[in-house]
Amino acid sequence: MAIVVQKYGGSSVANADKIRNVARRIAEAHKKGNKVVAVVSALGDTTDDLIGLAKQINANPEPREMDLLLSTGEIVSSTLMAMALHAMGFKAVALSGPQAGISTDSSFSRARILGIEPKRIIKEIDKGNIVIVAGFQGMTAEMDVTTLGRGGSDTTAVALAASLKAGICEIYTDVEGVYTADPRIVEEARKLEDIGYEEMLEMATSGAKVVHHRAVELGEVYNMPILVASSFVDTPGTIIHGGKNMEARNKVRGIAHDLDVAKITVTGVPDRPGIAAAIFQPLAKAGISVDTIVQNASANNITDLTFTVSRNDLSKAMSIVKPVAKEIGAKECLSDSKLGKVSIIGTGMQNTPGYAAKMFQTLFEQGINIQLITTSEIRITCIISEDKIKEAVKALHKAFALEQSKAGS
Amino acid sequence: MAIVVQKYGGSSVANADKIRNVARRIAEAHKKGNKVVAVVSALGDTTDDLIGLAKQINANPEPREMDLLLSTGEIVSSTLMAMALHAMGFKAVALSGPQAGISTDSSFSRARILGIEPKRIIKEIDKGNIVIVAGFQGMTAEMDVTTLGRGGSDTTAVALAASLKAGICEIYTDVEGVYTADPRIVEEARKLEDIGYEEMLEMATSGAKVVHHRAVELGEVYNMPILVASSFVDTPGTIIHGGKNMEARNKVRGIAHDLDVAKITVTGVPDRPGIAAAIFQPLAKAGISVDTIVQNASANNITDLTFTVSRNDLSKAMSIVKPVAKEIGAKECLSDSKLGKVSIIGTGMQNTPGYAAKMFQTLFEQGINIQLITTSEIRITCIISEDKIKEAVKALHKAFALEQSKAGS
Q1: Could you tell me whether strands A130-134 and A35-40 are parallel, antiparallel, or unpaired per DSSP bridges?
Q2: Percent of chain A beyond pLDDT 70?
Q3: Number of domain units in chain A
């Protein structure tokens, strides 16, 4: 009997009927002869509701207490899921993250899994139980409860699959798989049968929020195949894996986009060593993630420095950067919050000329102005005006013929 | 610096304002130089809400999963309380029952505390933290989360006070102390300055639901004084203790009553060994608590057996007793759910004649028919019609002159 690890997100367990629906799916996998371990997120909006409750009491709650508070959401859903399985006549047991043996560091609100001791899970499987694990949480060596940050239940599932040597980690969600582009924007968008870890990582960090990128990273480290599929309908999903055929593919696999982009430009920056550190260290200390960074070629030892942050962080970032800019003798700080990014993603693109040119030509033909460009080995990203994003995604999908399964090259 | 353990019930922490109010009270005790450990119950109706949620999924949930589910209620309130203290500028830390080192047996939903390892609590106190402990919960040796049953937070508080060698355990609630009778019924009811453990136990099990009886028992075992006082107003409460003067008191201390009484009578029972076991063993197995049991003197080897259960258990108890009654050749099973009990309580009553006679005479003068009588060393209880309870409590309070502080003898 193989061990199968499944994960169900918050929208899949939002109420009693949906919990019963998921319980039936878990039971199906069990009836097929698998040893099933299912990870669940908190019910629907529970996490946001708990955050709201905390903010009524303290505008800036301590992360340690916040994590202990938020961990209750997944405990509630895991116990209800076990109860639903009992009601259907199956043996099941609910385990909190600590009970499941998930050890983390003590970075509250974004803890990293240090290891899993699956003794208890194996004991319960051996007793014939379906094991339901509360996602998103673990415990430090000091017995403090931690959470893994948003999307943490995906990470829990992949880490459990790796430590239990499962054949596959199945992530069930409210979409049917990974698409060549957002189907709400591109009608012809096609569901991919499979995708490589690196490609999926670029898709995830470029705006395709299907699986959390930490889960994909972990999948890659342990070479654990991840199935992404719908928890509502029975259609084949997308398998994220690291097959050998990946390397040779050399084609665009998908278009990702993200509307959560704000840009800060510091103009008239003296071009001398230490300037970048002076600007980015205080941002890092304030916990602000900087995405793209571009520095224009210097003339007369004066340069312009541009970088992007998420929109939520813009005002905080500006309040940090402005005094620094003054101190280092820069000219001014400009910001623009109405931006988006669009990316083409595919293994081997960098080694094959023509992708970037085709992308820029396509955007030009639509009359879309490119503000910033960044590239990785398998991704080219353009930052453009927010109101042009849909148009750009559609045009690029068509230009690379992604509606055809053998296309994209 | 003395360690003070405080406990706040669910109605004292029902919303953000009330949580802040309790946080101020905890902070006051801390500012007086005490090392404060505060135990909190779940917010308002949380426990009932979680039970409702579970019943939507499974009419008969597994106790293990139910306990894990219910334990989240007190974790939420303990974290919010710590956050409220942080917002007021105090150092505080929230601990779940397991983190606080509370070990229990594995009788889910009514677990008994086996021991407390207060290492973590002491470490946090030494760091200058106010420690907030989630009440009502603990952990088995297998790391399963348990709950202590209704009123369990009182038990948590007294057990913590004992293990930390606190000077006193303060239980703050929505009443101002222990009264000579329910003040909603008897206008002249007087708040007692102090009361003995045994007397309080009889009060608690006879319907005065101020402190849970298990907490009082534990207080007696460890000789831990328990203060019962209001969490809303600053008036002196009642101290439950075991002073030497208790023994010699010889007077009625209070009148307790309980409306949750149902009676089952099995008539025409053959009076032979094993009959009582045949009836009460299946009830015990079904988890039904039987309160009073009375068997009338036997004539012709035929007897009537009467016992009381709580009203909730009546229909289940009848369905168990009826077939047994038939099997053992009894005549019939009768039930009455419209009963109540009224008790007079005081140390040393049994050694002093006249209390029982005065009680029966008082009820007779009110035209109240007594259906059953039971006594303990320090209590006399009469079971009477539900609609006569108020009248009986008022008349007995007056007859024993409980409105006068030196009276009752």
Answers
A1: parallel
A2: 95
A3: 2
pLDDT grade, residue A245 (50/70/90)? Answer: low
Q: Choose, out of A13, A62, A145, A146, the residue to mutate when testing the contact with B (most B CBs < 10 Å).
A: A62
Nearest one of B127, B151, B136, B161 to B67, comparing CA atoms: B136
Read off the tokens for B176: 């101002």
Place of tokens 């348990």: B146
Q: What is the pLDDT of residues B58-101, one digit of tens each?
A: 999 999 999 999 999 999 999 999 999 999 999 999 999 999 99
Question: What is the distance of C-alpha B317 from the center of its chain?
Answer: 23
Residue A229 domain-assigned (yes or no): no
User: Which residue numbers of B have CB closer than 8 Å to A's CBs?
Assistant: 16, 19-20, 50, 53-54, 56-59, 61-62, 64-66, 68-69, 71-72, 75-76, 78-80, 82-84, 86-87, 93-94, 96, 98-99, 120, 143-145
- Kindly identify which residue of chain A lies nearest to residue B141, measuring between CA atoms: A99
β-pair type (B332-345, B379-385): antiparallel
Question: What are the strands, taking DSSP E only, across B85-124?
Answer: 92-95, 102-104, 113-116
Whether B100 maps to a domain, the answer reads yes
Selecting from A62, A76, A82 the residue whose C-beta is nearest the C-beta of B72 gives A76
Residue B134 lies in a domain: yes
CB spacing of B86 vs A62 below 8 angstroms: yes
Whole-angstrom Cα distance, residue A206 to residue A200? 9
- The answer to whether the Cβ–Cβ distance between B79 and A94 falls below 8 Å is no
Whether A54 sits inside 8 A of B83 (CB atoms) is yes
SS3 state at A267: strand
Which residues in chain A have their CB less than 8 angstroms from residue B94's CB?
A: 65, 68
| Closest by Cα among A107, A68, A400 to A255 | A400
Q: For residues A370 and A294, what is the distance between their CA atoms, to the nearest angstrom?
A: 13
Best A79, A121, A132 member to test B by mutation, with max B CBs in 10 Å, is A79
Chain A residues touching B53 at Cβ < 8 A: 16, 76, 80
Q: Extract the tokens encoding B269.
A: 């029972």
Three-class secondary structure of residue B155 per DSSP: helix
- A98: domain CATH number? 3.40.1160.10
Q: Is the ipTM of this complex over 0.90?
A: no
pLDDT band for position A248 (cuts 50, 70, 90): very low
Q: Is the pLDDT of residue A250 over 60?
A: no
Contact A164, A4 (CB under 8 A): no
Q: How confident is the model at residue B299 (pLDDT cuts 50, 70, 90)?
A: low
- Inter-axis angle of helices A46-57 and B16-31, nearest 10: 50
Dist CA A343 CA A389 (whole Å):
10
Residue type, B144: D
Let me know whether A39 and A161 are in one domain: yes
Give me the total of CB pairs closer than 8 Å, taking one residue from chain A and one from chain B.
105
CA distances from B106 to A114, B49, B140, B151 (A): 30, 24, 6, 18
* Chain A CA closest to residue B96: A68
**Domain CATH number, residue B384:** 3.30.2130.10
d(CA A111, nearest CA chain B) in Å: 19
Euclidean distance between CA atoms A90 and A105, whole angstroms = 35
C-alpha distances in angstroms, B152 versus A371, B213, B215, B286, B309?
A: 63, 10, 8, 22, 22
In which domain, by residue range, is A301 found?
A: 255-399
**What average pLDDT does the segment A309-337 reach?**
92
**Domain-embedded: residue B334:** yes
Shared-domain flag, residues A274 and A389: yes
Q: pLDDT at position A407, please?
A: 45
Beta strands in B249-298, from DSSP E residues, in sequence order:
254-270, 293-295
Centroid of chain to Cα A207:
8
Are B373 and B355 in contact by the 8 Å Cβ rule? The answer is: no
Domain identity same for A294 and A388: yes
